[in-house]
Amino acid sequence: MMKNKLDLLIDKARILGLTYDNTIPDDLRAIYHTADSIRRPLAAVELEKVCKFSGIDSTPIQLLQEKAPAIVTAVKNRLLAEEPELIQMGGALYPEVRALACWRDCWHFLRIAIYALAADRTEFTHRPGVNGLGELYRELNVPIASMARALSHLRNESVACYSAVGGSRDAWRLDAALLHLEEMLKDLSLIQTPGPTLPT
Q1: In whole angstroms, what separates CA 131 from the centre of its chain?
Q2: Fewest beta carbons less than 10 Å away: which of 1, 28, 146, 197?
Q3: For 23-36, how does the pLDDT look when each residue is reduced to its tens digit (9 = 90+)?
């Protein structure tokens, strides 16, 4: 069965670059490839293997992963307090399915930032995938500037949480990884042009 345009764009929007990083051992890059291909967090045994390589403490990272849904909820509440019109009729995240996609993307951004933290990498995106994400967001008319603001809140909430669960020594690494994603979205917002809204 041939894929439609949206499916093809989703395939292109794979922004994780750790699987292309030759400074990471092949077996660990395989872990990242497997986890990212089905968009899941690292399992505990996988996290321990990566952290053994990088020297980062795996315990607070595991706790951060477990708290990811609560972090995204806090981000949603902060963004909607600032931009309530996003989810109102005619808003960029209306109807609800569009808003849910936004919060799901926030979760995925945190997921791959945690991948990067575990490997002690603060720049970890893959340029063709970033370009693909930009195409996808423009096709769906996603409010990229608002997403970048959500990433700023995600960074603040995640760093505070990580520090609270024992990761204060490496909190700057998480901050830098999420800032890398935030700057990526800001760059994409500069070239955003109105696009058609696909059927939901």
Answers
A1: 15
A2: 1
A3: 999 999 999 999 99
Which residues, in sequence order, are bridge partners of residue 16? 125
Burial class (CB in 10 A: 0-12, 13-18, 19+), 49: middle
pTM for this entry: 0.93
What 3-state class would DSSP assign to 16? strand
User: What domains are defined for the chain?
Assistant: 16-190 (1.10.490.20)
Tokens 């345009």 -> residue: 5
Provide φ and ψ at 5, rounded to 5°.
-60, -40
Task: Tell me which long-range contacts 152-159 makes (C-beta under 8 A, separation of at least 24).
Answer: 152/182, 153/74, 153/75, 153/78, 153/79, 154/71, 154/72, 154/75, 154/106, 154/109, 154/110, 154/178, 155/179, 155/182, 157/71, 157/74, 157/75, 157/78, 158/64, 158/71, 158/110, 158/113
